[in-house]
Amino acid sequence: MSWTQREIALNAKPRGFHLVTREVVEQLPELAKYKVGLLHLFIQHTSASLAINENADPDVRVDLESSMNAIVPEEFPYVHTLEGADDMPAHVKAILIGNSLTIPIRNGVLALGTWQGITLCEHRDQGGRRRLIATIQGETGASVG
């Protein structure tokens, strides 16, 4: 059993749902040595979240953003308003979607479904760079059949 852990920095993105699979994988060259295992991703922020979702049609990400804005409106009488109108709704959205993912690894690659990708859900208008902690656990060596 082997373990790897590293911090991943994601470039700043505007509010919305962003496919970041390639950005994550490019920062984890160690994936290639794992024949079977798990990648755990944890976002170190309270106003952004991570999800697995559609990786082909960008309209899905637009609709996800619209849906979350309808579910969690900015025009709500929030008490926490010191950091701007988009801050408290961002916290609520992050709690609803979640702060971590676990993805299987098979033969050195993420075992995502055909239409699945890692999505950064940026809930602030200007959230800045986001940090993830990536932890890989698994077996290295010969390929899995």
Explain this structure to me?
With 145 residues, the chain is α+β, with helices and mostly antiparallel strands. It has a single domain, classed as Jelly Rolls, CATH 2.60.120. The chain is 21% helix and 43% strand. The protein is built from three helices and eight strands. The chain has a five-stranded antiparallel β-sheet. Strands 2-7-4 form a three-stranded antiparallel β-sheet. The longest helix has 14 residues. The chain is elongated, with a radius of gyration of 17 Å.
CATH architecture: Sandwich
Strand order of the largest sheet: 1-8-3-5-6
Count of runs of 4 or more consecutive helical residues: 3
Distance N terminus to C terminus? 18 Å
* Largest sheet report: 5 strands, antiparallel
Count of beta strands: 8
CATH class bucket? Mainly Beta
Morphology: elongated
Helical content class? 10-25%
Instruction: Give the percentage of residues in beta strands.
Output: 35-45%
Alpha-beta content class: alpha+beta
Low-confidence stretches: none
Q: By CATH's scheme, which homologous superfamily applies?
A: YjbQ-like
Q: Element order, helices and strands?
A: EEHEEHHEEEE
**Number of separate domains:** 1
Q: What is the mean pLDDT?
A: 96
Rg (C-alpha, Å): 17 Å
